[in-house]
Amino acid sequence: MTTTDSRVLRAELLSFDADPGENDTPAAGSLRYFEDGALWIEDGRIRAVDDYARLAPELPEGIEVIDHRGKLITPGFIDSHVHYVQLEIMASYGRQLLDWLNDYTFPEECRFAERAHAEALSDAFLDELLRVGTTTAQVFCSSHPVSVDAFFTASQRRGLCMLAGKVLMDRHAPEALTDDTRGGIRDSERLIGDWHGKDRLGYSVTPRFAPTSTREQLDAAGGLLRNDASLWLQTHLAENTGELDWVAELFPGSRDYLDVYEQSGLVGPRSTFAHGIHLDQEMRGRLAGRGANLAFCPSSNLFLGSGLFDRLAAREAGLNVSYASDVGGGTDLSGLATLKTAYQVGQLRGQPLTAWQGFYGLTLGNARALSLDERIGRLAPGMDADFVVLDPHATPLLARRSARCRDLGETLFALMMLGDDRTVAEAWAGGVCQHRRDG
Ligand SMILES: [Zn+2]
Fold this sequence. Notes:
Blueprint: E1 6-16, E2 31-42, E3 45-51, H1 52-55, E4 64-75, E5 77-83, H2 97-110, H3 115-131, E6 134-140, H4 145-157, E7 162-165, E8 167-168, H5 181-195, E9 201-207, H6 215-227, E10 232-237, H7 241-250, H8 257-263, E11 271-275, H9 281-289, E12 293-296, H10 298-303, H11 311-316, E13 320-323, H12 335-348, H13 355-369, E14 387-390, H14 396-404, H15 408-418, E15 424-429, E16 432-436
Parallel strand pairs: 1-4, 5-6, 6-7, 7-9, 8-9, 9-10, 10-11, 11-12, 12-13
Antiparallel strand pairs: 1-2, 2-3, 4-14, 14-15, 15-16
The structure holds zinc ion.
C-alpha cells in the first residue's frame, strides 16, 4: 500500500514564467498571480496551482487545507553564490578583498579541517538560509573535503536542493588551506562520485579564483568539466582592481582575467562567476556567448568597496545575471536584503531594479542561470515543492506600509525594501515545512 502526503496551502500566489523585463509593469504573460490561490502539493512536488474557488471542488475529501490568506507564497529563494564557511566572519571590519582574505577568511577556513566544526556550521548555515527563505544555494565549502561531506550530509538530511564544492587552491594561501595540485583534483573526483546527482544535490567544481590556483590546477579543473557536462563550476572574477593587477602579473600569457579561465576550459553554461564588476563589454559578450552567468553580490560589493556592478551592460550583452549574498563578504543572507542593496547599487548607476525584476531574479531567474529551472523556481505542476510564505504584515511598520500599497507591485517593492527574516513566515522544501517563524 502506498500513502500519499498531500495538502493544500491557501494564500496569494505569485510565480514567474518569463523575464518580466525592465519596465515598471511586467511584460505580458511573464507571471501568474492568484489573489486567493490554492497550492496543492503531493509527495514533495506541486500537483496543482489555481484559484482556490476553482480548485476546491476537485480536492479530495478531508485533505488538509492550510489557511495562509493574507500572506503571499512565491517559489523558494535561490542564492547563486555564498560561502557557508564564512558565516561566523560576517561583519568583520576591514578594508578590501585581498586584505580581507588574509586577515579573516583564510584563518577562519582553517577551522573546517575538523569534522565536528564543519558539521555544526553546516547546520547553523542551513538554519539561517531557511530562516530568510532561501531553499537553494550554490555554496563554497573550504579546501577540506570533510567540509563538503558535512555540508552535503546536512543538506541531504533536510531534503534540500543544493550545489556545493571543495575549494581548489594550490598556492598563495596558508599551508593549512592549500591543497596539492593533483590531490585537490583527486579529492574533487571522490566528492563528485559520492555526492553529485545524489537526491537533490549537485557538485560545483570550485577553484577559489585565478590567483590561488596554478595553471596546472585550473586545467585539471577544466578536465573534470569536460568529462562530465552535468557538473557546475563556481569561482570569482574581476571583483577588485588590486586583484586584476595580481592576475595580470601571475598570468602574463592571458590577454585578460577572463581569458585565464577560458584557456582552462572553465567557461560554460553551468559556470557562475561571482562579481564581474571590472569587465568590458567585449568580455561580457564572451561570457554570454558561452551561456555563463555573473553572480551580482551587491551587499558584498559595497562592504568590500569593490565597485558598482553594471547590471544593464550585462543584460545588453545577453549575459545571465544571478543574485547572490556572497556571505561572508556580504552583510546579509536574506534574498530580500540582496534585492534592496541591488536596487541601491542600481540607483547609483541610474539603473534601478524593479520589484518584478528582483523577485523574478531571486526565483526563476536564478534557477535558469543555474540550469535548475526544470525542478525549481516556479509554482507549477510537477515542480519540486520549494516555496516561501511571506507575511506583508510581519512587523508593525511593514503592516502600516502594506496597508497603503495599492497593487502587487507596490507590495513586492515594500517587501524588498523593508523585509527581513521576520517577513518569512514559513520556508518549504521538498514539500516539507523546513522553517516556521516563531510567534
Ligand atoms: Zn565569494
